[in-house]
C-alpha cells in the first residue's frame, strides 16, 4: 500500500465525516463544524484560553475569536477570568453548551452504531487502535511543526 492510496482514503474520510456532520447538525441548534470542534475541545479538555484554542486548531487567533464569539452569542460558552492569572480569560462551556455537545455526540454515535453494525468487536478495536495511532503520530508531527508544506 502506498501513501497515494492512504491520502485518497483520508480525503474520502473527510468528505464522509462532513456528510455525517451535515446529517447530525439539525435539531435544536445547528452547529457549524468549527463551533462543534470548539465545543468538543472544551468538553474533552476543560476550559481553555483563546490562544490555546487557536494553537490546538493551528488557526490565527482572530479566526478563533470570531468563531468563539458566534458560540458565545448563542449561549453555548462563556468567558471568565483565569483563576491562575486574572489578566487572562478562560472559555467555559455553559450548561446549554454541555447539553448541546452531549446531544450531538449521542446522535453521531447512534449513526456510527448503524454504520458499523456489521463490524465485529475485533474489527472495531483494530480500527480504533489504527485511528489512535494515526492521531498520536499526527500530534507528534504537529508539536514539532514538521508537517511538510
TrEMBL record:
Domain of life: Bacteria
Any one Gene Ontology BP term: response to stress
Protein name: MarR family transcriptional regulator
Database matches in SUPFAM superfamilies: Winged helix' DNA-binding domain
GO terms for MF: DNA-binding transcription factor activity
Protein's organism: Nocardioides guangzhouensis
PROSITE patterns tied to this protein: HTH_MARR_2 (PS50995)
Residue ranges of every copy of the HTH marR-type domain listed in the record: 7-136
Amino acid at each position: 500500500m502506498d501513501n497515494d492510496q492512504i491520502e485518497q482514503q483520508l480525503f474520502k474520510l473527510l468528505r464522509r465525516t462532513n456528510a455525517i456532520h451535515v446529517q447530525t447538525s439539525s435539531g435544536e441548534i445547528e452547529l457549524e463544524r468549527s463551533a462543534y470542534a470548539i465545543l468538543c475541545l472544551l468538553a474533552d479538555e476543560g476550559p481553555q484560553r483563546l490562544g490555546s484554542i487557536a494553537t490546538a486548531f493551528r488557526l490565527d487567533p482572530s479566526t478563533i475569536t470570531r468563531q468563539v464569539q458566534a458560540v458565545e452569542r448563542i449561549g453555548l460558552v462563556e468567558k471568565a477570568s483565569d483563576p491562575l492569572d486574572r489578566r487572562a480569560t478562560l472559555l467555559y462551556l455553559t450548561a446549554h453548551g454541555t447539553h448541546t455537545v452531549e446531544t450531538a455526540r449521542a446522535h453521531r454515535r447512534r449513526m456510527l452504531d448503524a454504520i458499523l453494525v456489521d463490524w465485529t468487536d475485533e474489527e472495531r478495536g483494530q480500527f480504533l487502535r489504527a485511528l489512535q495511532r494515526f492521531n498520536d503520530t499526527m500530534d507528534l508531527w504537529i508539536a514539532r511543526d514538521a508537517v511538510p508544506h
